[in-house]
Amino acid sequence: MSTAAPGTADPSATNTMATTKIQARALVRASGGPRYAVALAVDALGTGLLRPFLLLYGVMVLRLPASATGIAMTAGMVVALVCMPAVGRWLDRGARSTVVAASMLVRVLGVALLLATPTGNVWLFATAALFLGIGNQAWPAAHAALVATVSHGRERDAALAGGRALRNAGLGAGALLATVCLAGGTTALQALAVVTGLAYLAAAALAWSVHVHAHPAATPAKDRADEPAPRMRTLLAANVIYVFCLNVPEIALPLVLVTQLHASPVWSAAIFVANTVLVVTLQVPVTVLMSRFSRRTVLTLAGVVLAASYLGFLAATSLGHGWGAPAVATVSVVCTIGEIIYAGSATALVTALAPAHVLGRALARFQFSTGFGLAVSPAVITALASRGSAALWGSLAAATLLSASAVATEKDQGTRLNRARAGR
User: Fold this and answer.
1) Which site in 50, 82, 153, 348 is 20 to 30 Å from 58, CA atoms measured?
2) Handedness of CA 64, 50, 368, 311 (dihedral sign)
3) Is 387 helix (H, G, I), strand (E, B) or coil?
4) pTM, entire model
């Protein structure tokens, strides 16, 4: 299937996803088709098998120090961001399913290196982590570009949300299966790595077989001159703060529950499971429900909801041992709703702002801000938590509200261009 660039779509086309009624077939079709949906599910399942336990692989199988393993993993994620400009240029030449498949294949190489790493070799482990990181950083931009090519308008927003829900379901299922298998010790971890590599390989073959390709040449040269690449500096800077919400259930809440409230680790596990279930079940319905508002308004609302949840966590932790853990678990639902609203509007806003011929570079810059935020947030969260609940949650709330305010007041480049054209 070869598809024209999103900028060539008829803006008056019927938007089947703009209503609160969700049609599964239309959603799958708008997401790239059944084969591509299977590719996403297989890729997510494989990722869930290994990614949460990569640190354990380094420590248990390769006998590396935990600190060295963590540094290698973080370095891999950060250095992998260097590939994003090249990914953006590749996408702007029209590649779509090929880039998605490549992001999966590079992770196959990462898994192969991981399996070939001898005991105690931190450098080869770091190289494997780098290739895994490149695939993990490149995939979101490539996936969003593919979806933006086969669907348009609010239908595209719902398709992006559906992809996220499917991916979270696969990640959760993979992590659950891996947790059960961990009783097998180091042999089980090695087996999980093998299965992960095979899953990535199968997913890459399925994704490539879809054959989605955009035609940047379809955009008239005059329109290209009139539509420069949006800088989106405010949006990208705000996104670095927004994306902290993705690490709250995995890092901030377990840290607070165990070290400050002295609660059972069961609470952290329950919150993580609830977060996954809510994202899987609510991501598409909430995104469709919010489609009656502008994407920028929805993204601003997400910041307000997230900031309110951070203040809720501050109040919950003040209850101390006993009521503190249940209160934190309750507030985590609000935080997850904020995360869902954010995830359903942020990438959609970028795809709506970017002209077709620079969509790849716009998505690559957005993923750079996302990857950077995810990379620095663990260090920032742990540093703030060491200074107490007020420092942690107060700082996150203030920074998120400031980001939401900046998003709300930023003027879209397309709006300025339209006004300039009207004045000619």
Assistant:
1) 82
2) negative
3) coil
4) 0.87
